[in-house]
Design brief:
It is an enzyme of class 5 (isomerase). This protein has 300 residues and is α+β, with helices and mostly antiparallel strands. It has seven helices and 17 strands.
């Protein structure tokens, strides 16, 4: 083999060796490649926002004022539309204007910063014939007539008594407390004394507790007992563990009994007692707190 052939063969071998080394390096590179981290989304795409004040939940301005115990939501909407409310230095006229729940936006009413009103809890012996409403579109007298000249802050009814009913009715400017009292699952029991137009037998009293169907709805009382009776009518004590509209009247009507008088005498352990009709008194804090301990559990 001459020198030229040997040189050519050597160069060929060197080329093959170099190619083999390149393939080995490529194999090692492929084995060592790690998955890429996810690419950041393009500008304007979805991304994780840092938790800051701008992400705080928002509520409508009228609702915020009402939750502070300053007024009803309807009254708050009227203040806002009248231009009496400022948010962060400018007048806002939209009752649904979003307000951050972190309190970062300064709110003024008539130029004064709002502060949560002192929480008040009040019981009224509601007279028959008054509507449980702040205003009545038909011009009928409302329960607020009982507070004329008292100088009380705004208070909302906690639950209802219809116009023909009477007795214990609560008021407060504490929305959370009111929600707990009226909650159908955990609220305290309500006790009523009811005069009816007949003298029922034990079978009827049992049916009221077992439940009856009225207008496609199942109605029942937690308990019923006879208080006293005469020749033509009787007084029952009926305890409810829920608060449906006109529940006692509809329950009794379903067994052909008419209500002559309906008086709420207790909510939980809070009793109407000797409070005169049309009169009210503030609850002690312990009395208000005790109502939350009188929770009931529905039968399964």
């Amino acid at each position: 083999m001459d020198e030229g052939q040997g040189r050519a063969r050597g160069e060929g071998q060197d080329g093959r060796d170099a190619a083999a080394r390149r393939r080995g390096a490529e194999d090692r590179t492929r084995k060592e490649v790690k998955p890429r981290a996810p690419r950041a989304p393009a500008k304007g795409g979805l991304r994780n926002k840092p938790a800051n004040a701008s992400s705080a939940p928002r509520h409508g301005l009228a609702r915020v004022l009402s939750k502070q115990g300053l007024c009803s939501r309807t009254e708050a909407a009227r203040w806002i539309q009248d231009g009496r409310v400022e948010v962060a230095g400018r007048i806002v006229r939209d009752p649904e204007f979003p307000i951050r729940s972190d309190g970062a936006q300064r709110i003024l009413v008539d130029g004064h910063a709002i502060d949560a009103a002192p929480r008040l809890y009040l019981m009224l012996n509601k007279p028959r014939g008054l509507v449980t409403s702040t205003q009545d579109e038909r011009g009928r007298d409302t329960v607020y007539r009982c507070f004329d000249g008292a100088g009380l802050p705004w208070l909302a009814p906690v639950g209802r008594l219809d116009k023909a009913s009477e007795g214990l009715l609560l008021f407060s400017n504490d929305p959370a407390w009111a929600a707990g009292i009226t909650d159908p699952d955990t609220g305290p029991l309500k006790t009523y004394h009811v005069q009816i137009d007949t003298v029922p037998d034990e079978r009827v009293l049992t049916a009221l507790v077992d439940g009856v169907d009225a207008e496609g709805e199942r109605l029942r009382a937690a308990s019923v007992r006879m208080l006293r009776s005469g020749e033509r009518n009787a007084w029952l004590e009926i305890v409810l563990d829920e608060g449906r509209n006109r529940q006692i009247r509809r329950l009794l009507a379903a067994v052909d009994i008419a209500v002559l008088r309906l008086v709420r005498v207790a909510i939980g352990e809070l009793v109407l007692g000797e409070l005169p009709k049309g009169q009210w008194r503030l609850l002690e804090l312990a009395e208000a707190q005790a109502l939350f301990s009188n929770v009931h559990v529905h039968d399964s």
